[in-house]
Amino acid sequence: MNNSFIFRLNHYKDILLFNCSESLQSYIISKQIRMNNVAKIIITDLHIRNISGLLGLLSSLNSIGRIKDLHIYGPRGLSSYLDLGKKYSHTNFKYILYIHTLSNGLIIKHEKYRIYTFINNYSFDFLIIASELAGTFIIQKANNHYLYPGPLYSKLKKGSTFILPDGLILNGSNFTISNSEGIKFNFIFNSYYSRKSIQNNIKSMILLYQ
């Protein structure tokens, strides 16, 4: 079974790869996804079905001239596997490759999302929490208060509050349509549900891989 998939948040060009099967690169090309937008790769285990396409993808990124860093997260042994693969193929990458060992808890903290790892029966489950999206800024309301486009707009949109010299209070929540609540995604790679998995799944979108 193919456990590889692509994850991307709306309004954010970078993509995350969960595992890297041999066919994943062909799928990326067929869907006209920009390969250079791969920001992070998460390997759930070292089964051949999950890593068979990893070295090929890394080499392709090198061949298209990638220069920005790439972060890969995986279980112990992933770094050794990649070192042996590079040595065998006589390949070196022009970009910096960071290898992170998966552990229980927060593994990725980004302004747009956070990713947590939970050990479940000797495998890993993942919880992605997308940040709350600011609502649409009501420009007409800002104009009514004689406010002009600038840094103040973005701060009000984020919900900041300001007190003007004349004592007038500008509350950012009054200048935007309601914010969108951050979405939770739970990726389960083991059919055995632990109590911790059930707790993490509350109010989450669930993807189960067996």
TrEMBL record:
Keyword Plastid appears in the UniProt entry: yes
Coiled coil: none
Alphabetized SUPFAM superfamilies for the sequence: Metallo-hydrolase/oxidoreductase (SSF56281)
Record has Plastid as a keyword: yes
Keywords, in A-Z order: Plastid
InterPro entries (UniProt xref): RibonucZ/Hydroxyglut_hydro (IPR036866)
GO molecular function, one term: 3'-tRNA processing endoribonuclease activity
Record protein name field: Ribonuclease Z
